[in-house]
Design a protein that fits this description.
Length: about 240
């Protein structure tokens, strides 16, 4: 039988580092600010119709704080997963982005990120590899379910680039705002992207068995060839 999994990639809410143009990275103790807490509460309403089965999060506190209101509303635990941890920016942690933009290395980050390693930190290729491995782990663990994953901007953008089939050197073209939602769908393991940088109420995601629809899907996907396949539909509301 075919299986479908939806994964919602959700960026954490705003914090003072975002508001002040600083690179938080893995700096400990970076909490949501007032706007970030409001964004986290708003996600409860935005996702109220989604049949969430599990909630994963980067272990960093700003991600966990963004996930908690939704987890409380659904009576689900927040599963902390290191695969979704923020980039290790090394010596750049806590720096002002406006000052970093003046460095010659900044051009590499923007135009050839696949060749760049942050000083005493990670390469973006390593970030993409571990994040995609995390998504694949979640997909395999949750067949026929909808799962939320709370992570960080560059983690989400490099992941989306992978599933778009876009070169890592173009990932900077993808915009992922705080508390935005991007939606990956996997049908029999084959990925598709249903939404990126969504900040309004999502179409309702449903997973259901419908033999007729499996043979003649209405969502633009190819027929599965299995009359008892599990299919996914997205209804705009």
């Amino acid at each position: 039988m075919a299986d479908t999994t939806f994964i919602l990639l959700i960026r954490h809410g705003e914090n003072e580092y975002v508001a002040n143009h600083k690179l938080a990275g893995r700096t400990p103790g970076v909490h949501l600010n007032d706007r970030g807490r409001a964004q986290a509460e708003a996600l409860v309403k935005l996702l109220e119709e989604q049949p969430l089965a599990a909630i994963y999060s980067s272990p960093l506190v700003r991600c966990v704080e963004t996930a908690r209101p939704l987890a409380a509303a659904r009576n689900l635990p927040v599963i902390e997963e290191p695969a979704f941890l923020e980039v290790d920016y090394g010596d750049w942690h806590g720096a002002d982005l406006r000052e970093l933009a003046k460095l010659p290395e900044w051009r590499k980050v923007q135009h050839t990120p696949s060749t760049f390693r942050f000083p005493n930190g990670e390469s973006l290729r390593e970030v993409q590899n571990r994040a995609v491995a995390g998504v694949e782990m979640v997909r395999q663990r949750h067949p026929n379910e909808v799962v939320a994953v709370f992570a960080h901007g560059d983690v989400i953008r490099t992941t989306l680039a992978h599933y778009l089939g876009a070169p890592l050197d173009l990932f900077q073209r993808i915009v992922v705002q705080t508390a935005s939602i991007s939606v990956l769908a996997f049908h029999d393991g084959a990925p598709s992207i249903l939404a990126m940088n969504w900040t309004a109420t999502l179409p309702k995601l449903e997973i259901k068995t419908d033999p007729a629809a499996a043979a003649h899907p209405t969502d633009g996907s190819a027929p599965s060839g299995d009359a008892t396949a599990v299919i996914a539909t997205a209804e705009r509301r």
